[in-house]
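In response to reviewer comment 3 from the previous cycle, which asked for concrete evidence that the modeling workflow produces usable outputs, we include below a single protein chain processed end to end. The sequence was submitted unchanged, and the resulting structure tokens are shown without manual editing.
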Amino acid sequence: MAATPPSPQKVRFDYNLDKTIYDAFVKNCSRKGFAPQIVVEKLMKKFNETGQL
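The workflow returned the following structure tokens.
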């Protein structure tokens, strides 16, 4: 019987943001067809790899 790899763990992301900036970000993500959490994850990954956005 083969073992299945564990699924990726998720972390709760809780920060205080300006509501108008957050609303504009979510609206623009939905217009482009992106999920906001995916955009944030990719930006974090890029920052961790290169040290810049």
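The radius of gyration is 15 Å. We consider this sufficient to address the reviewer's concern, and the full set will be provided in the supplementary archive.
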